[in-house]
Specification:
homodimer, 650 residues, alpha+beta, Jelly Rolls, Glycosyltransferase, 10-stranded antiparallel beta sheet, 14 helices, 29% helix, 26% strand, globular
Chain lengths: 650, 650
Amino acid sequence: MAQWIWRYGDHEIYHSLLLHSRREEFGADYPAIWHTDAPEKTVSFFREFEAEKPCWMRLTPCGKGSLVVDGKRFPSGEKVDIPAGKHSVSARIVNVEGLPAAFVESDICPSNGEWTCGIRERGGCEKVGTSGWYTDPDVTPEVFPFRYEEIKPAGKEAVNGGILYDFGKETFARITVSGCPEDEEILLVYGESREEALDPENAVIRQRRKGKTGYELHARALRYLFVSGAEKTVRAEFEYLPLEKRGSFHSDDELMNRIWETSAYTFLLNSREFFLDGIKRDRWVWSGDAYQSYMVNAYLFFDKAIAERTMLALRGRDEMPEHINTILDYSLYWLISIADHYRLYGDREFLIRMLPRMRSLLKYVEKDTDENGFITGGEGAWIFIDWSEMDKEGPISAEQLLYIRALEAMAECEEAAGNDASFLREKAGTFLMKVNEFFWDAEKGAYIDSFVSGKRHVTRHANLFAVIFGLADEKKTASIVKNVILNDAVTQITTPYFKFFEMDALCRLGFMERVAERIKAYWGGMLALGATSIWEQFDPEKTGVERYAMYGSAYGCSLCHAWGAGPVYLMGRYYLGVRPVKPGYEEYTVEPCTEGLGNIEGSVPTPKGDIRIKVCGNSASVFAPFEGGILVWKGKKKAIKAGEWTQISE
Amino acid sequence: MAQWIWRYGDHEIYHSLLLHSRREEFGADYPAIWHTDAPEKTVSFFREFEAEKPCWMRLTPCGKGSLVVDGKRFPSGEKVDIPAGKHSVSARIVNVEGLPAAFVESDICPSNGEWTCGIRERGGCEKVGTSGWYTDPDVTPEVFPFRYEEIKPAGKEAVNGGILYDFGKETFARITVSGCPEDEEILLVYGESREEALDPENAVIRQRRKGKTGYELHARALRYLFVSGAEKTVRAEFEYLPLEKRGSFHSDDELMNRIWETSAYTFLLNSREFFLDGIKRDRWVWSGDAYQSYMVNAYLFFDKAIAERTMLALRGRDEMPEHINTILDYSLYWLISIADHYRLYGDREFLIRMLPRMRSLLKYVEKDTDENGFITGGEGAWIFIDWSEMDKEGPISAEQLLYIRALEAMAECEEAAGNDASFLREKAGTFLMKVNEFFWDAEKGAYIDSFVSGKRHVTRHANLFAVIFGLADEKKTASIVKNVILNDAVTQITTPYFKFFEMDALCRLGFMERVAERIKAYWGGMLALGATSIWEQFDPEKTGVERYAMYGSAYGCSLCHAWGAGPVYLMGRYYLGVRPVKPGYEEYTVEPCTEGLGNIEGSVPTPKGDIRIKVCGNSASVFAPFEGGILVWKGKKKAIKAGEWTQISE
């Protein structure tokens, strides 16, 4: 069957461009703050084949172009008869406005992943991009295949001269209003909270329309919707990407179960063309947020395609005019994520495709260093790390530690591709020694943010990275635990973004009960306030509508933010305890934990099928459809047999 | 008055993309064979100003975006009131499909050339692109401002079951057909020749339409138009860019006058968004063709803007995935043309804008060399030079000589910008010695094409370059004249493209009478056949419809090709004899010649006004509105006075 084909990566670049042009705020369009790539505009697609008998082909272009068979040009749309024999076919497509793509119907050689492409008229040898989604010549890959499902409001009330609809929970919906008087200006206010929907002045998303009897509005985030004037017919359709929830989690702790479910729902809403940060405000793709989404995805959808789409969109074209999202750390996460992705899915082809992009990105990172060789990001680069007080004078420790992990990731990928990476390994080792020399404060027993400022300020971030990435030796780790992680005098983390890393570090350090407690307090705190999805930020000290404020705006805080879905990852990786040891789960470990939760059960997706885990009392059981795993429970180990339950009882 | 503003160069990249997507052939779309750039998709525009009293602004985006005044965001289209004081304003625009541009109306700070821009949200410091053309908020710079003028056929006849219209001469027109029966398929065949319009099978441009009562067809080249079926209402509008014909030429030789006029008309038809190669077939922008167009333009329109648009379109974005038009020589012409352009117009700002693009292009050229350091173009590069038998094994001499001129051009530009270029000067000198060592054949007294093949084949091309670029010393020049230029055993040049260079060389060598004769024979030969514009190729040996064949197709030869306009340049530069000595005509020479033509008169445009020249009998007169010129006539010299006639009589 024929599929639409395009230059690999361009589908992502195009949809990323569309996505990043959609932000709106207080009625104004708000283009992305970073450089946005366009797909290649003219692309040739190639195929050689041998036909045993006469055959035919027909080109449908996304754009304009023609089919060239053995050097002869045919208009698109024309059925071309081809005699038996060896043939060389190409389709050159230009698309000024959108994504150049080709759809070739044929009884012998339809367009599919076997075709190659290139920017030149001849000789392209890159494999095309394609997807099982796009098999209809009438629907081009410029149309992202979202699904729609009508949803009904859970309630409505007449208020403030209009009707307020409550859809019962956070959602993302296309709204159609009909039965409007033509001369009436209709105001729609979208609210993630009731307060927002009733505050047209300050609500982030609002729209005024006039002059027609009905309006179809593109999909936006909401739980509440205010429609001004007398009641009209309002229809809402949930817009989503159907992804199979392969991971699951259940424990004796009902709050934790609700946290897991709410996290999973939050994550579903944010999993669309790419992994978004949040569905209301910017709906952009941020590499730091995506880095955590890859981790959550590994324990929920295990959807390789969305992860790769996100990576391709973030990286864009090979030339880099600035850091990914303009942020140095976000470039580094991108590198790290490729190695992590390989470990999860074991896809060497994707890895090899990414290698040149990794090398040039690393080169871009390394072009800006200070006199000691520490990376600085260069002029205009944003040194983000987190929304937190941090001493950012000169090179900062958190970036250097990410850089070391990025060097290791680069080495892992080069090695997986069969290349020598000893230079990278050595560089990472030497660099770590230098980081310890400049940034480790023996007196404070912790990494300081900056050595340039002289303030010797300690924040949690770099110290967490040192633990998570295994860059701190045993002595330093113990010191970090005592002086930073368990030291309440060090400023607490307030974003679920870095809470995610903090929880990860605590799990790695074995503080499982503390993790369960903190998750229940922090995530549970949001649920207690009626959250139906996890927020961008939560400060238990704040009250009322104050909780929704962020970035200087009354409802600036996103109430459905992907980085809040961390518990899905933490439960899967540390409670169900499943992790790959060799790429693609060729070898893996299942080391469950129940601390603070009682009995647990659930499943973790892998490329070879789902692993099911049950821990009941003193007995832990695993069912996996494939070999290669080791069950670890209460100090005992057992090889996991394929297709049957493997159990260890204390 | 407000003007549309865009990222400098993007207007050209966008219109180049549109242009290069428009080729059609035998009913099929035919995208350009080279890489096509897209403009930057998200751009910010900036302005700081101080208002003495309250003022206002309103943004109209080409794309989507908003106006940010002192950090506060306002929707596009909204009139924003601004208090007195200092203000910082920006407009960030995204345009997924087209060219991001901004139009800001304001009583104090409208969008114009004073604004800056950048790809980032903040800190752009590049000056924007703008044009006096685009001052209407309702018409974006995505619409190129062609003019339209109704033209009437000079004749029509019923033939082959339809009507054949003859517009009397070559033109470029938008055709509207009305009064069609809905169920009748209408066939339109465009012909540069009568034969082509009556040969629907082989005509390059043909179109079939059905299902409506009228059709409006985009503008295409034609002299003849065949419309099938019973007579309908056919309306034709000439589509053109109004350019002032500042140059003029008249002599006692009526044939030469007609040649000049026909060349000028040919050139007008090809001067549109950019300098095209020809108006019928590909209508693409080719750097080699453009190189000659810049020279013709210097003696006809002196339109700096179209030259710069062409240079920007050819160069595209800074990153080069391949040579300009995929051709090594065409990359080199681009470099040379910037230096020539500076000499003509003296615009240092444009020069400085081009310098980074020149440097990176030179770097791209130099990345592919053989073991002797000769440039080779690299894998997949097209070594064109001319449609001529040439020994292209290994590096070829014509490319090396172009490269030396390109190095000198680069040096001229660096020096004009105030930079040291001694390295480039030295490199050019050393390289020339090496070229002489490898490519100069002492026995043949000429440059050979290739030293690798061992064939020691001589063609005219490299030898012409050596003369034109002044790279051959006196002895070598004499040898080239004798052994190549005046040697009929060396294959004759058949394209007006290289005829142009050949005539240029002959003029430089002083063979003026021979030039006049050849022009009259070759160009005059086309006129004798009824040509109303100059052809892409002309072989006097061919007869009938055979003359229109090229590239393996019956009407493949373009009958209106810019490179045929050479006589405009030759008459202006060598007969009227005007040329700049210092950039922007700060100093110049007028050295007229009448050999073979009798009395002549005409005018040559310069940045400071037109220079008028009259040669009558033994007396030569010049009128220039500015100083700095020297009149040279029959061995005498005289400084030209501004605003009066300066005369030398023998």
